[in-house]
Amino acid sequence: MSELDKQTLMSDGVKPQTQDKQPGVESEMTPEPVYELESHVGSGKLKGKVALVTGGDSGIGRAVAIGYAKEGAHVAIAYLDEHDDAEKTKQRIEQEGVNCTLHAGDIADESFCFNVVEEVVEKHGKLNILVNNAARQEVKESVVDISAEQLKRTFDVNFFAMVYFTKAAIPHMEAGDTLIYTSSINAYVGNPSLIDYTSTKGAIVAFVRSVAQELASKGIRVNGVAPGPIWTPLIPATLPEDMQESFGVSSPLGRPGQPADHVEPYVLLASEGSAYMTGQFIHINGGMYTSS
Q1: What is the Cβ-side half-sphere exposure of residue 122, based on CA atoms within 13 angstroms?
Q2: Tens digits of per-residue pLDDT, 56-69?
Q3: d(Cα 87, Cα 65) in Å, to the nearest integer?
Q4: Which residue stretches, if any, does this entry annotate as coiled coil (predicted)?
Q5: Is residue 3 one of the residues assigned to a domain?
Q6: CB–CB of 148/186 below 8 Å?
């Protein structure tokens, strides 16, 4: 990593702020998340492949989508309604000489998920990589404060949507293709303020380990990433400002993670470099899991 990259990742820190709508807008954040590092120079690891990234307009999804483009993949992005963020990501991706399509809508709707996959195959000709990344969360002090409406919405977006995308994608995938899922450190250590969110992330871990066994005979690999505290639009859109003040600083590395910290692991899981990996999770949390 270059000295400039190190300074970029460590600069400023989190400034407490709020946004009034999930999943949040990246361009309104101060500082904006770091989604790209000069040290990541593509080498054709994904040349000619087609990737669909949910939540790819911003945060970890944006970083991964751009990282895949640098490696030669054409990219499709599913997102809710953050059109400006999505257009900015699309423009950056296309600077790499690959194609990018945007697909706006509510992933809690099963028909939308299936339609997106069909559109991707129609417009790009195939689908090799599916990254199930989009998520929502709401802070509640106690499990008794979680309404049935919140519980359902959180599972619809975080868990059921990725099941829908998985079901839609598998018939179009072949040996060597990959499914990748974003879980969370919370699935492994718990979080008393995000119980329903944490539960969905635990469900994702179990889902990945199960589907990986099912698809192994077809040569389709299924893996995931479990991020720790990462500076994305979801943080100002959901966490109170007092919780943001210490966000990520308790990690052994002393800072919150950035979307850019995830690019290389997601590239690894999408490429032949992980040909002997399935049913696994990569933990990106500044050492918090090991110190908990």
Answers
A1: 7
A2: 999 999 999 999 99
A3: 13
A4: none
A5: no
A6: no
276 annotated active-site:
no
Residues ≥6 apart with Cβ < 8 Å to 14: 231, 235, 244, 245, 247, 248, 256
The amino acid at 67: G
Q: Are 288 and 247 in contact (CB under 8 A)?
A: no
37 and 66 in contact (C-beta within 8 Å)? no
Q: What CATH number is attached to the domain comprising 60? A: 3.40.50.720
Q: Give the integer Cα–Cα distance in Å for 101 and 285.
A: 31
Helix or strand (DSSP H, E) at 76: strand 74-79
Q: Is residue 23, in this structure, part of any structural domain at all?
A: no
Q: How many domains does the chain have?
A: 1
Q: Please state, in angstroms and rounded to a whole number, the distance separating the CA atoms of residues 61 and 264.
A: 13
Mean pLDDT for 277-289 is: 93
Catalytic entry in 181, 197, 276, 289: 197
Containing structural domain, residue 134? 40-291
Is 16 part of a structural domain of the chain? no
Euclidean distance between CA atoms 264 and 267, whole angstroms: 5
Residue type, 41: V
Quote the longest CA-to-CA distance of the chain: 51
Q: pLDDT tens digit string along 188-228?
A: 999 999 999 999 999 999 999 999 999 999 999 999 999 99
On whether residue 31 sits in a domain, the answer given is no
